[in-house]
Amino acid sequence: MGMAAFGVLPEMVETAGWAAGLGVLLLGFGLLWFINRYVYPVCPSCTHGHDHGTCSIELHGFAAPLVIAATLHSFMDGLAVTASRREGPEGLAWGVFLAVAIHKIPEGLAYGTILRAALHSRLSALAWVAAAQAPTILGGVLESQVASHLGAGG
Predict the structure, then answer these.
(1) 78 and 139 in contact (C-beta within 8 Å)?
(2) Which stretches of the chain drop beneath a pLDDT of 70?
(3) 57: DSSP letter
(4) How far is CA 128 from CA 7, 35, 76, 108, 113, in A?
(5) Where are the chain's structural domains?
(6) Region class of 61: left (phi > 0), else alpha (psi between -120 and 50), else beta
């Protein structure tokens, strides 16, 4: 909630104004609520009809949504790093690269901790963390290829 209120909302307001920025943010929360309620529980531990006291794995059912979200996040990280090489002053490229590289360490540790509680073994948790982080490179390569075909390459 803090990231949405203090990170995303101010940028959206600056770009589109208060009404549109707040509307898009609320639309995002509404979509997340709808998916959680009617499609797939985004937070399985919050599902009301389930007794977690009888489960052998503490966070069962949480691995798949986490890996999907982490994979998309990593892909976008790769796009951002590669795009920052072309845009703005030279310092921006290094700043974005360092920000992404530095945040990958605690992010990977957090994913590993959650996945360890959601899966049967440490090895499978480690493998899924690696699989979720790998799209960072794919995003960078794809952005580079697409930009060069669109004439934005550098």
Answers:
(1) yes
(2) 41-58, 60, 87-91, 151-154
(3) S
(4) 28, 23, 18, 10, 12
(5) 1-39, 49-149
(6) left
Task: Give 138's contacts (C-beta < 8 A, 6+ positions apart).
Answer: 75, 78
Distance CA 73, CA 136 (A): 8
Q: What is the dihedral of CA 105, 110, 111, 117, to 10 degrees?
A: 150
The amino acid occupying position 25 is L
Q: Cα angle vertex 99, ends 98, 101, to 5°? A: 60
Asked whether 60 and 67 are in contact (CB, 8 A), the reply is no
- Quickly tell me which residue has 């979720």 as its tokens: 132
* pLDDT tens digits for range 32-60: 888 878 887 666 555 555 555 666 666 76
Which DSSP category does 1 fall into? -
Give residue 95's pLDDT.
79
